[in-house]
Write a structure and sequence with these properties.
Blueprint (H helix, E strand, L loop, with lengths): L7 H8 L19 E6 L8 E7 L2 E7 L31 E4 L3 E4 L2 H19 L4 E5 L5 H14 L5 E3 L6 H11 L16 E5 L3 H4 L4 H9 L3 E5 L12 E3 L6 H14 L5 H7 E2 L1 H7 L5 H8 L3 H13 L3 E5 L1 H4 L4 H14 L9 E4 L18 E2 L3 E2 L3 H11 L13 H9 L5 E5 L3 H4 L3 H10 L2 E6 L11 E4 L8 E4 L4 E5 L12 H14 L8 H12 L11 H7 L2 E2 L26 E2 L18 E6 L15 H6 L5 E3 L1 H7 L5 E6 L4 E8 L7 E5 L13 E4 L6 E2 L3 E11 L13
Parallel strand pairs: 6-7, 6-16, 8-9, 8-12, 9-10, 11-22, 12-13, 16-17, 17-18, 23-27, 24-26
Antiparallel strand pairs: 1-2, 2-3, 4-5, 4-18, 14-15, 19-20, 20-21, 23-30, 25-26, 25-30, 28-29
Helix pairs in contact: 2-18, 3-18, 3-19, 4-13, 7-10, 7-11, 7-13, 10-11, 15-17
This protein binds ligand MGD (2 copies), iron/sulfur cluster (SF4) and molybdenum atom.
One ligand MGD binds next to helix 16, strand 17 and strand 23.
Organism: Anditalea andensis
GO molecular function: 4 iron, 4 sulfur cluster binding; metal ion binding; molybdopterin cofactor binding; NADH dehydrogenase activity
GO cellular component, one term: membrane
Length: 738
């Protein structure tokens, strides 16, 4: 049984997290590196270009890569520290096996592989193939994402594969497919610069996509009006023309109201609506009873602000609408997304220069990783695993019988629920830390403790992997060649700067060896990453995410190629929809009716305060990587409870007082940070920490019915001040998260 080892201290001593170290003993950065390798940052979806400095097969520093067109050398605080991982003392340097009561001990690769394959076979024999699940992640390259999808279906033969994008981009993906039949931002970032009006809804871009702000500033220099919709006055909101301080969970009411105002004032593009869309009447019908008083009451935004925003949008001739997790992490995430798209379609401002719309993809390869088949319902090229033609095409590429291909499996949180119910008995994870990042993590921990066998592939020991029976020492971004697709749809090249240290292995090699040992070796004979990419190209051909015409050579020669790129002589598609040929069955863009409905948990007398969660600039996701980098930890050492001084006053809460935050799922202590930049009825906690510091002890495990994304952005809580001040942040050990 995969129980938590008795001594967590033992694990931390051996495997970190340690936050302070120097990259290479004695290397002062003064003598010449052996090589400068052009590649990309391993963190967010901007995938900024960077050059890594290599000395004696170790990454020892970086230089800006000025020529890469998106960021032209600019990097954010995480980007300038990302090089400190390859030679980090916490690296897992060989496979490990958990020894009850002792923690983890190194074992050889043979033993780790043998044990894993035997357990997979035993569990599948006793309980069926689908009783072994797999969870993957989109920090992985396109090649690895593709291979994981194929591995789960062809070697592991399970339906139950899903990925951490389920917590991230799936509401946007589902909304975009409904509206356009394709899931990608409509334009490259350059088009932002000349948009007259820009709406940014539910994204704190200065902290989460810092290098993208450069494009917003350029638009501002050109006179653009900026509208920000966020319950907090985020850094970008401080510079906006209009900030709409929305009550969490009410975006579809706001955008529905704006649609109504556009129609009432005839700020519509009738030609576009009539010739290139369907469903306008239904979408309008869903909002026909909305009025400004209702919208003000529902969204908490002053009605004059709503009217001003609608007027700016309605009268503009060019515009861009961007959103991210703030509107998507909801049980009505898909409704929020389509209600944004509705106002874009109503004004016909898409498929033209300086007119665009899109979600800002979060993870490093959040775009490419959601296209090539490691989602529970998907096959490469963004094909549908339930569609017989799609299944047949991919089965032929893989050289298997279509009947042997598993069907649709469970989504990430549902997969954990199935483990909890005892239906799934074995688990393999790569690039996912569900114990920190899934909602209601006390429930997730209970599930992990029920597994009969759990194997994790990672380069650091994350909180979830502490429950593993075996850990396989995997590779960092800079240790394996491949491609990723940036948030603007540009496929770029990741170059290996070094080989994995010591006895760690490339992720790709680990997956391939497992496939061989499971008897599917003939389907996994890839010589190198390019060979995997070439199979991916064929597998994606004809799908909506068509990469067929993209080659490694073309990527390098052009600093990236935008998909779709259906043939070798095709230049790629930086701007979609110029031809107005949408990828829906009728070829039109679809309006979707999205009548407002409340969030799954709303405030009441007992739990009167709205809790929302998200990010800070110096930490990344579950913190596995960034909590190990001293300067990033020092910048924001521990999760704080952002609270408005007026709400704090009601409870008598003082700056840095420890406040117990309680929800129906759990409770946890956080130091209060009094800020006037948040709504008075809402508190915010960043989620990058585990254990007692984890915000996800509090969040709710309810899912959007279509996208299955959890409702991270809204639940109800109560506050219980302790009267005690939190210790000085320098004494915080939150980065250890034990
Ligand atoms: N520094 C840093 N950067 C990152 C990441 C990271 O972990 N750290 N992660 C990357 C990834 S994977 C992702 S997905 C992105 C996420 O990027 P963002 O979506 O920008 O980040 P979040 O902090 O999750 O949420 C954004 C904003 O939503 C607001 N919000 C909360 N509830 C609501 C609501 O109901 N409506 C509206 N309109 N707004 C609301 C919050 O106040 C917050 O400012 O960032 C990427 N970049
Ligand atoms: N409350 C709350 N919870 C949230 C969110 C929120 O806003 N609020 N946001 C959600 C979002 S948008 C996201 S994307 C998820 C992210 O949640 P996770 O995917 O769990 O977060 P990561 O920290 O990326 O975990 C990835 C693990 O993969 C490892 N890893 C990274 N790159 C590689 C690689 O190339 N190879 C291998 N083998 N391992 C690798 C890291 O070391 C880490 O242990 O969190 C979600 N959870
Ligand atoms: S903006 Fe994103 S990709 Fe660019 S340096 Fe920062 S974390 Fe890395
Ligand atoms: Mo994300």
């Amino acid at each position: 049984m995969a129980k938590l080892p008795t001594s967590v201290e033992n694990i931390i001593d051996k495997h970190g997290p340690h936050k302070n170290f120097t990259p290479v003993d004695g290397y002062k950065g003064t003598h010449e590196p052996d090589a400068l390798v052009k590649t990309h940052c391993c963190f967010c979806g901007m995938q900024c270009g960077i050059q890594l400095k290599v000395k004696e097969n170790k990454v020892v520093g970086f230089e800006p890569w000025m020529e890469f067109p998106f960021n032209e050398g600019r990097l954010c605080p995480k980007g300038v520290q990302r090089y400190l991982q390859n030679n980090h003392p916490d690296r897992i340097l060989s496979p490990l096996q958990r020894v009850e009561g002792k923690g983890f001990e190194p074992i050889g690769w043979d033993a780790a592989m043998d044990r894993t394959v035997n357990e997979i076979k035993r569990i599948q024999r006793d309980y069926g193939n689908d009783a072994f699940g797999m969870l993957s992640g989109v920090s992985l390259t396109n090649e690895k994402s593709y291979m994981v999808g194929k591995f789960a279906r062809v070697a592991l033969k399970t339906a139950n594969l899903d990925y951490n994008g389920r917590l991230c981009m799936v509401s946007a993906g589902a909304g975009n497919k409904k509206a356009f039949g394709l899931d990608r931002i409509s334009n490259n970032w350059s088009d932002l610069k000349h948009a007259e009006v820009i709406i940014i809804a539910g994204t704190n871009i200065s902290e989460t996509f810092p290098t993208l702000t450069h494009y917003i500033w350029q638009a501002r220099d050109n006179g653009a009006k900026l509208i920000v919709v966020d319950p907090r006055v985020t850094p970008i909101a401080r510079t906006a023309d209009l900030h709409l301080p929305i009550k969490p969970g009410t975006d579809s009411a706001l955008f529905g109201m704006i649609l109504k105002i556009l129609a009432d004032n005839d700020w519509l593009d009738h030609d576009f609506i009539d010739n290139h869309t369907s469903g306008f009447e239904e979408a309008l019908d869903a909002v026909k009873d909305y009025d400004l008083d209702w919208a003000q009451e529902t969204t908490g935004i002053n009605k004059d602000l709503i009217l001003q925003a609608a007027t700016l949008w309605g009268k503009a001739s060019t515009s861009f609408l961007l959103h991210a997790r703030g509107i998507e992490h909801h049980t009505k995430g898909v409704d929020n997304v389509v209600s944004c798209i509705n106002i874009v379609l109503a004004t016909g401002r898409i498929g033209r220069p300086y007119c665009g719309y899109g979600t800002i993809t979060g993870q490093g390869n959040g775009q490419g990783g959601r296209e090539h088949g490691h989602k529970c319902d998907q096959l490469p090229g963004n094909r549908d695993i339930t569609n017989p033609e799609h299944r047949k095409y991919i089965a032929d590429v893989w050289g298997i019988d279509e009947k042997d291909m598993p069907g649709k499996g469970l989504s990430a949180y549902e997969l954990i629920e199935a483990i909890h119910r005892g239906e799934i008995k074995g688990l393999i994870t790569i690039c996912f830390n569900p114990l920190v990042s899934l909602p209601n993590n006390n429930f997730v921990r209970e599930a992990l403790e029920k597994l009969e066998y759990y194997v994790a592939i990672d380069f650091f020991l994350n909180e979830t992997a502490r429950h593993a029976d075996v850990i396989m020492a995997g590779s960092l971004h800079e240790e394996e060649e491949g491609t990723v697709t940036t948030a603007e749809g540009r496929v770029v090249k990741i170059n290996a700067a070094v080989t994995p240290p010591d006895n760690a292995r490339r992720d790709g090699d680990i997956i391939m060896e497992l496939a061989h040992r499971l008897g599917a070796g003939d389907k996994f004979n890839f010589e190198n990453s390019e060979a995997i990419f070439n199979e991916l190209r064929v597998a994606s051909k004809g799908g909506t995410a068509d990469y067929y015409g993209i080659t490694y050579e073309k990527i390098v020669n052009n600093m990236g190629i935008f998909w779709p790129c259906p043939s070798l002589d095709h230049p790629g598609t930086p701007r979609l929809w110029e031809d107005k040929k949408f990828r829906t069955p009728d070829g039109k863009a679809h309006f979707n009716a999205a009548p407002f409905r409340p969030s799954s948990e709303v405030v009441d007398k007992e739990y009167p305060v709205v809790l929302t969660t998200g990010r800070v600039v110096s930490q990344y996701l579950s913190g596995t990587q960034t909590r190990r980098i001293g300067k990033l930890v020092d910048q924001y050492p521990e999760p704080l409870l952002e609270i408005h001084p007026k709400l704090a006053y009601q409870y008598g809460i003082k700056e840095r007082e420890l406040v117990k935050v309680i929800t129906r799922r759990g409770e946890a202590l956080f130091p209060a940070q009094l800020v006037e930049t948040i709504r008075e009825d809402t508190v915010f906690i960043p989620y990058h920490w585990g254990g007692v510091h984890s915000a996800n002890q509090l969040t709710i495990g309810t899912l959007d019915p279509v996208s299955k994304i959890p409702e991270f952005k809204v639940c109800a809580c109560k506050l219980d001040p302790t009267g005690k001040l939190a210790p000085h942040p320098s004494e915080s050990n939150a980065y250890q998260s034990n």
